[in-house]
Write a structure and sequence with these properties.
Chains A, B: Its EC number is 5.1.1.1. Chains A, B: Keywords: Isomerase, Pyridoxal phosphate. Chains A, B: The active site is at residues 39, 259. Chains A, B: Its cofactor is pyridoxal 5'-phosphate. 2 copies of one chain form a homodimer. In chain A, the strands form 5 sheets. A 7-stranded parallel β-sheet of chain A has the order 3-4-5-6-7-8-9. In chain A, strands 1, 11, 14, 17, 18 and 19 form a 6-stranded mixed β-sheet that branches. In chain A, strand 4 (61-64), helix 5 and strand 5 form a beta-alpha-beta unit. The first copy, chain A, is built from 13 helices and 19 strands. Chain A folds into 2 domains: 31-216, Alanine racemase (TIM Barrel, Alpha-Beta Barrel); 239-364, Lyase, Ornithine Decarboxylase, Chain A, domain 1 (Beta Barrel), CATH 2.40.37.10. The first copy, chain A, is α/β, with parallel strands linked by helices. In chain A, helix 2 packs across helix 4. At the A-B interface, helix 1, helix 3, helix 5, strand 11 and strand 12 of A face helix 1, helix 3, helix 5, strand 11 and strand 12 of B.
Chain lengths: 371, 371
């Protein structure tokens, strides 16, 4: 019996859709370069399967969060340009050199530390400089930039190839923060030598040409999340999650369902128990709020979601669809990660990165596709 | 450079504390048997490291959610009694036989299917029967039990060794559901031959002797979650999660922090950015609500939690504690998973099962401990 036949949760990732999304964004921003953000294992979807497909499609630059992810990506893509967003954290500079990883330098302390390392002549790769323009998370402040500008030998030592910043409110096109941050980046970058600049991630790309600069850094949009919340999603759907029905119960007297007895059944109802729970990343906050799709019909979550199981009310679904062994769609063409996130009280990003470990995963639409 | 030195998130699991918790419960319920629920990879904490320690301490019976988990556990514990809560889902009966896994049979259809398989003489293991007493999730209804009682040859064919049910409100000792479910189990079990019975999981154990029956099935309490919410936790803490500070920022003018600019800094503040985000299972719902501990002080989350990063306000923390490279405690002795769950709007169970994949994990207090 194959793993697939035994699986109770099936996660299908459409790599061809990811590639199509990247190509669409790449065409949209040309002549700016479109990189790909593949941190957190491609938002939980499998860097090993996705990064090679993006590279084959022409993507040359990649962003990861930390040095461990950079080392993992280097094994997959020997020739790619790999940026590590956290930069060196002290003592790990040699790893950046050994694996040819470009550190994103986020503070004056990181810059001086890296300059010291680079001066030792140990083959340090080039670097990117991150300027804070209002996110107040990582990046150099104006004061730090002024101090750096006073020491051009340090800037020369780190051989910068990119100046970047990050928008705080890009998913709200009406926010005055966006234009303000772009203006600030332009102004602060003047403290540095002329370099390619980057400020736009997925949502920022859709703020207009002025935000594309030299390079854009889409992540969420590649994986099918809507970069323009509240407007039609221009990206192709990527993820499909299905849960297997373990049992169908007929309830004919008034009873409660699940932990805490939070859901009460009044009339004659049919309940389907699916072998997916919050340990699989199907958020507990979907209890009594989320829904699934089966046979083209919407079925509501009944009661609290358990660790390994979720109960749906399938009263109106014909028995040929709702039977033990049948699949209920939990994320898919009619139920986007953004929609699930709305019902769970979070954002699509967290839905993707939380997708559990017990799913059987399939990658489709790639030469390296495997089941 | 070791993986540990490069790690930005460090998860330490005290296996000795898990064993101590199991021993305490075992002594509490004796002569009833204390099993261990190790589903979902021991609630996300690593079955491979924990199950052998429990077995060495004397635990003989284990519960997993699905057949894949059963097969994985059989590789670790060749001689243990392993129950699979979902039972066979059609076509996978041979896997139960091949790996000597006891199916928990949750419906009349599963029972008749398993009886048919067992009659083929293919070495089917014994089985457990799950009776629903009010959870309305999995388990035989009274009607199904009456129909089963009319066909004793089916019951004989499956060789049942345990009758079990599951409490819906065990964490609320005042709920009338508890006694009602126990009474219902006693009454419905009379349709079957005399067998050991089980109804209590972690919280049920603390409802009193009457709920211990032949076997108890603790999971959460083994892993340090409080089986009696609102009262002092009788269990030892198991999990410690630390995040490394990537950068410390001094902010001296009124500014906003993070995505959506939801947090506003008014005076002179010091902010620490930690390399743990919601992709690591540090829930996004902790944004502007959660806290960490450093140098014995409580530090609040400032702004929205990002995928890879969380910002804390460390203004009041001395610089010898809050500096790049230092650790902030996110779960630990002073910040239980239950407490984090309160702040995140969920339960400790979901905090544990969501702990991310990027953590560097250490198991301590076991002969098989490794770093």
């Amino acid at each position: 019996m194959t793993d697939l036949a035994r699986a109770t949760a099936l996660l299908t990732i459409d790599v061809a859709a990811i590639v199509a999304n990247w190509k669409r964004l790449s065409a949209l921003v040309a002549p700016a370069e479109a990189s790909a953000v593949v941190k957190a294992d491609c938002y939980g979807l499998g860097m090993e399967h996705i990064a090679p497909a993006l590279s084959a499609a022409g993507c040359q630059s990649f962003f990861v969060a930390c040095v461990n992810e950079g080392i993992a990506l280097r094994r997959i893509l020997p020739a790619a340009v790999i940026h590590v967003l956290s930069g060196p954290l002290g003592g790990d500079e040699g790893e950046f050199a050994a694996h040819n990883l470009i550190p994103v330098l986020n503070s004056l302390a990181q810059i001086t530390g890296w300059a010291g390392f680079a001066k030792k002549g140990s083959g340090a790769p080039a670097a990117a400089i991150h300027i804070d323009t209002g996110m107040n998370r990582l990046g150099l402040s104006e004061t730090e930039l002024e101090r750096l500008a006073a020491k051009p030998e340090i800037t020369a030592a780190i051989r910068p190839i990119l100046v970047m910043s990050h928008l705080a409110c890009a998913d709200d096109a009406d926010s005055p923060m966006n234009a303000r941050q772009l203006t600030t980046l332009r102004r602060l970058a003047s403290h540095l030598p002329a370099l390619p600049q980057s400020i736009a991630a997925s949502s920022g790309i859709f703020l207009g040409r002025g935000f594309h600069l030299g390079l854009v850094r889409p992540g969420a949009a590649l994986y099918g999340l809507n970069p323009m919340p509240g407007r039609p999603n221009p990206m192709s759907q990527v993820v499909k999650l299905q849960g297997k029905i373990v049992q169908v119960r007929d309830v004919d007297s008034p009873q409660t369902v699940g932990y805490g007895a939070t859901h009460r059944v009044e009339g004659k109802r049919k309940l389907a128990v699916v072998a997916v729970g919050y340990a699989d990343g199907w958020f507990r906050s979907l209890s009594n709020r989320g829904h699934g799709m089966i046979g083209g019909m919407k079925v509501p979550v009944a009661g609290r979601i358990s660790m390994d199981l979720t109960t749906f009310d399938v009263t109106d679904v014909p028995a040929e669809h709702a039977h033990p062994g049948a699949w209920i769609e939990l994320i898919g063409p009619d139920l986007s990660p953004d929609r699930v996130a709305d019902e769970a009280g979070t954002i699509g990003y967290e839905i993707l990165t939380s997708l559990g470990r017990r799913h059987h995963r399939r990658w489709t639409g790639t030469e390296t596709a495997k089941s």
